[in-house]
Amino acid sequence: MLTHEDQIVAAIRQIIRAVDLHSRKLVNGHGFTGPQLAVLQETQRLGTASPKALARAVHLSQATVTGILQRLERRELIVRKPSANDRRSVLIEISSQGRQVLESSPSLLQDRFRDALSSLEEWERLQILSTLQRVANLMDAEDLEAAPHLTPGEIAANEDHLAKPDPPIDQQVGNEVG
């Protein structure tokens, strides 16, 4: 019989595994990492935005977002345009190809998780929050910065592609998560 401690560790491992599997499904099925998809979705939501505004909106460092934007631009999913107000600045817009890719992309794991959490009573959400904050404290992780994205870990600007080559664009559009 497993101890309570073993059951807690197993539950944490299930959460980590779920995040990892979802991230792999995104990369293998759609050619995106979670942060890439979040940046593309936020670009569409904002319409036109600076890289700094996008970084703030997705809770990632500007360096990380810069790397993601470079990859999205190479795949012709976003367009950089000079700012009309400041020619030294650029603004980011989603391309028509980017919109098409988003239409066939799955939701982010945290979006579904937030929806499920919102169906809980307030006291249940507070209890979960308190418990998870305590778990983070027990793991000496309370001082680690973490964005509200369920991904395997922070992805640096130079490794946001998970060391995988970009799939051809025609393979990205219309793919189903398998």
TrEMBL record:
The keyword Metal-binding does not apply. The gene is mhqR. Pfam families: MarR (PF01047). Signal peptide: none annotated. GO terms for molecular function: DNA binding; DNA-binding transcription factor activity. SUPFAM superfamilies: Winged helix' DNA-binding domain (SSF46785). InterPro entries: HTH_MarR-typ (IPR000835), MarR/SlyA-like (IPR039422), Tscrpt_reg_MarR-type_CS (IPR023187), WH-like_DNA-bd_sf (IPR036388), WH_DNA-bd_sf (IPR036390). Residues 149-178 are annotated as: Disordered. Residues 5-137 form the HTH marR-type domain. PANTHER family: MARR FAMILY REGULATORY PROTEIN, TRANSCRIPTIONAL REGULATOR, MARR FAMILY. This is HTH-type transcriptional regulator MhqR. Gene3D superfamilies: Winged helix-like DNA-binding domain superfamily/Winged helix DNA-binding domain (1.10.10.10). One of its GO terms (biological process) is response to stress. Keywords: DNA-binding, Transcription, Transcription regulation.
